[in-house]
Amino acid sequence: xxxxxxxxxxxxxxxxxxxxxxxxxxxxxxxxxxxxxxxxxxxxxxxxxxxxxxxxxxxxxxxxxxxxxxxxxxxxxxxxxxxxxxxxxxxxxxxxxxxxxxxxxxxxxxxxxxxxxxxxxxxxxxxxxxxxxxxxxxxxxxxxxxxxxxxxxxxxxxxxxxxxxxxxxxxxxxxxxxxxxxxxxxxxxxxxxxxxxxxxxxxxx
Length: 205
Known about the structure:
Blueprint: E1 2-5, H1 10-21, E2 26-28, H2 30-33, H3 46-61, E3 65-74, H4 95-105, E4 113-123, E5 129-140, E6 156-158, E7 163-164, H5 170-176, H6 178-192
Parallel strand pairs: 1-2, 1-3
Antiparallel strand pairs: 3-4, 4-5, 5-6, 6-7
């Protein structure tokens, strides 16, 4: 199966290729297809935004398109930044600006609970849309740690490992991350639909 990743984010592309590639799916990018579109992410939920992007890229490319929308939901902030995670500090804000704003808002806050949430949506040529959601619970640190990853990874502590997402090796992160879980669940659904050969989903993480 060959799909288009509906993103230009190099971090996301790397994760998607690594996870889906283990399931026998070939992933191409908009740059490789000569496609450049801008989809407004104004939905109220992660699924709304993921589906809108997947459908837009399907229409532009004519091939199955995979999009995801993900974000950080912080308990003490009432679920913010949520769907606005990528632009928490303003449109065009850098990853560092976003997580530094988060840390300022969390100063003196004892409840550090948070969760990364991701919904992946695959738009198929026949009009069907397959979605799956993954979630990873964690804690917000008081200062960033680690040099890998992207987004809020340096300030998100995964309790079981005792590491931030920015400290984990890529394979370690993919095995437990919200995006990894969403993509593995998506592949399991595609297998049930007969669109992929049977494979143990756990081996794809």
